[in-house]
Specification:
There is one protein chain. The protein is an alpha/beta fold. About 25% of the residues lie in helices and about 20% in strands. It has helices at about 30-45, 50-70, and strands at about 70, 75-80, 90, 95-100, 105, 110, 115-120, 120, 125-130, 130-135, 140, 145, 155, 160-165. The structure holds coenzyme A. Coenzyme A (COA) binds next to β13.
Amino acid sequence: MNAVDFSAAVSATEADWDRERIRGFWDPGRKLLRSIRKYQAAKHRETAFANLIARYWALNHWFWSLVTQSEIHLNCSIAGGLLLPHPTGIIIHPACEIGPNCLIFHQVTLAGAVKLDGHCDIGAGAKILGPVRLGRHVQVGANAVVLQDVTDGNIVVGIPARPVSS
Ligand SMILES: CC(C)(COP(=O)(O)OP(=O)(O)OC[C@H]1O[C@@H](n2cnc3c(N)ncnc32)[C@H](O)[C@@H]1OP(=O)(O)O)[C@@H](O)C(=O)NCCC(=O)NCCS
């Protein structure tokens, strides 16, 4: 995970939308995310035409969900700046709330009411079983199973996940 900027310089409150800017034709994580953004924007407008547009993006979401074998619900509450570097097998329950500038690796499950406050980086294969809240600038180790709240700035690893001893 060191290849990704884990430092507190990444804001936990101000969304960095550039993280979601599509980089090229093959960018499944960002394209999956774009379908959710566009769907929600169209739904918000509540006109007949916007409803048609929403249907298009729902179809697009279905396509990228199939490609990535991920289930990120169209109505999930996701703040800006989410990164999905290897978007496969990611499952996010519709009750989850994801704060700004989080990062979610492959095979991660956010089950039930999981709240990520902001700039939470979730390692590959981690399972977070709600209801649970992760504070700001939290790191979850690969394959951890998080069952309890994690306070700001903590790194948790293992099953069940516990803070790394400093
Ligand atoms: C949790 C993590 C961020 C910690 O990184 P770090 O701060 O550099 O911590 P260290 O490597 O110094 O490890 C600290 C301790 O936690 C343990 N640890 C680290 N990661 C662990 C993990 N995923 N599961 C269990 N224990 C882990 C180490 O063995 C070490 O234990 P010790 O103090 O008893 O020796 C990192 O190990 C991790 O899991 N990153 C996820 C990476 C990932 O998913 N990458 C996908 C790329 S495709």
